[in-house]
Amino acid sequence: MKYVDEFREPEKAQALLREISKLCQQLKKPIKIMEVCGGHTHSIFKYGIEEVLPDVIELIHGPGCPVCVMPKGRLDDAIAISQNANVIFATFGDAMRVPGSKASLLQVRAKGADIRMVYSPLDSLQIARENPDKEVVFFALGFETTVPSTALTILQADAEKINNFSMFCNHVLVIPALQALLDNPDLQLDGFVGPGHVSMVIGTDPYEFISQQYHKPIVVSGFEPIDIFQSIWMLLQQLVENRCEVENQYNRLVEKTGNHQAIAAINKVFAIRENFDWRGLGDIPDSGLKIRPEYAQFDAEQKFTVPNLKVADHKACQCGEILKGVLKPWQCKVFGTACTPESPIGSCMVSSEGACAAYYKYSRLSKASVLQK
Amino acid sequence: MCLGIPGKIIEIINAQQKLAIVDIGGVKRQINIACIVNEQHPAESCVGDWVLVHVGFAMNRINEQEALETLKILEEIVNIT
Ligand code: SF4
To answer: Is there an atom of ligand 1 within 6 Å of A334 CB?
Structure first.
């Protein structure tokens, strides 16, 4: 496949690893690098990248999995919408198992709610066209990567005047989350591997504050193993040379100012939500999106009454500390025992992009238990 | 969730609605190309373009020149080490 196989070749990985090791010898202390995006977390585990890096590099798996940061209260709201007699609730598969305070979408579907998994928001619009006597609600979630697709779907619904269609909007934004992490004194990071596909939409300019105000380097990275190795190599060069810049490893897809059509569609349909409660991280100002009043007819929060309650996370769950990179998954008491991908207690165990599920799936228990001793 | 997969646009099925058929590793799918169409790149001109597909949308064109440059840097590292 185009520019996939080329970024999986072992010789390149080995050469980069040798360069990485050389640079590591010039470091004055061990370093912590956060990969922000859950897609990177997944690749890092899938390809065993962490395993082969020199020990002085610690990878912290950040909050970039939109499923993992979805608070229970919002899940409860989604479930409440799906309980309306006339509603077909459509969602990406990733959200099906996320535990709400009482149940997940999967569990309420088993009890008879009409919940359908779709691949694209456009598929949910098609369901609305085919079921004019039903209300179709799409569970819009994801970071900036996914926002253009939901914005364009709403614009399409508007153009066709499809009035039995709406979205329950839970889009979240990467930049405010990064700001919150950088302001957290618990978190001493030396640099970031920046999200590739979010940046394809927003560009690399929005990260400038990280280098200018917080004096940390960030390298926007692709998702293949070579991409990640190369990004870590670029980060190390910056650290060794005492630089902190925004660099772009993924320039085959990411431009400095992003994708202008995609940004225009986002701005047309969505406005900043003053506050969004992130699971584990709490309220982060200006970190979510809501549907603009001009498109209120497509806003499920206007069409339906939702409980809109805040629900505390499970007592045992350490997702918040995991998302901040303060704790490792195996340090959670219920990891792998009461909490597994089959019956997750916390959302980091739901998606393969969540740190807990990634550790569990790629059997990091052995390494975890060694480290614990 | 933010994952994407490269595909090649092989046919425009509705230029006005910006719908195209893309070939993703041999599998053909309908996608929306609104994010990659503009005055310099009208829908009709997109056939043959490699794009990154995410949830049924082409999110960006893959920049061949940049990809080759990155690969060149990598080749150089392979050769010197
Ligand atoms: S193991 Fe489960 S309960 Fe513990 S932090 Fe991870 S997701 Fe939360």
So the answer is: yes
